[in-house]
Amino acid sequence: MPNRIQRSPRFERTGNFSTIELTERDIEIIQAVHKHRFLDSEQIRLLIGGSRQNLLRRLALLFQHRYLDRPRAQLEYFRPIRNRPLVYGLGNAGADLLTERFAVPRRKIDWQAKNQAAKRLFLQHSLLISDVRVKLEAACRRDRNTRLIEGDDLLEQCPFATRQKQNPFRWTVRLLLDGAPLSLGIDPDDIFGLEFRGEQQGRRPAYFFLEADRATMPVQRSGFERTSIFRKMLAYHESWKQRLHERHFGISRFCVLFITTSAERIETMIEANRYFNACKGSAQFLFADHSFLESANPLSHSVLNGTGESLTLLDLIR
Fold it and tell me: Which residues contact 250 (CB under 8 A, 6 or more apart)?
């Protein structure tokens, strides 16, 4: 019988692996995983580039040396689909490296324990957020006329009071609904901006709050005690009416981008959005399904706003 190739266990460190001398590319990989929380190997390749096989071998080595970790929740997540890209989180050695080289606060986090405690739904949601961010980052790298403004960049221009908060991208809006006081918390999945540079530099950037929707949350509920898509819309819309974005972030305008699962789900969201502006809907909300992420260039891919108009993210830079 022919000898079978012995593969290393994918979620166990074997101890019989080669030594590693970290390269600058390795450090880029570790930084990218830390920045995005979880990334799969294809997302890492999109950010870092290079040969797929060489990258997979390097990721395996970084895992064995504890610079990266592989959350076990992906076993349950990927069980029905074989050959899915492996998902990586930051390992303890990677966290130590970032502290030593870049003074990233280490705190007393056991990253391996934190990664293994991540549940399947959290992992799925995190990967969807990462997918949006990675695809936009890669698109802006290809399009030299467009710059991606990331959360840390925005934080630098926020008012001092916001920068001092423990969670600066989380806020609360208070309103009256049918005469009753209501307090709604807002915690976007991500925040980013887009601006033109080069010849078109000087036009006002557009800012977006991302809501990554996997269709597990009801679009509407009978009350507001529990969260729903409409509850999120109401909170964002009221924040805009009260100009909280100006006081909290120092930005003059924003849109809310919902990335969801299907065109049918988008139709349901747009129908809920008709509550605003005398049943006309609010153009502040943007909707796209997974074709947005699968497109060659998400910057120029069509999205729908709350009034049913088709446009692109670049159309919103003025």
Answer: 157, 158, 159, 162
Q: Residues in the chain, how many?
A: 318
The CATH number for 61's domain is 1.10.10.10
Phi, psi of 142 (to 5 degrees): -75, -35
Q: How far is CA 71 from the centre of its chain?
A: 18
What are the tens digits of pLDDT across the range 173-208? 999 988 899 999 999 999 999 999 865 666 789 999
| Same domain, residue pair 73 and 33 | yes
Predicted local confidence at residue 6, as pLDDT? 45
Same domain, 162 and 259: yes
Task: For residues 287 and 194, give the distance between their C-alpha atoms in angstroms, rounded to a whole number.
Answer: 17
Name the stretches of the chain with pLDDT < 70: 1-8, 77-82, 198-202
Give long-range contacts, CB 8 A cutoff, 24+ apart: 240-246: 240/284, 242/173, 242/175, 244/171, 244/173, 245/207
d(CA 220, CA 265): 12
Question: What range defines the domain where residue 273 resides?
Answer: 145-316
Tell me, what's the pLDDT at 316?
A: 94
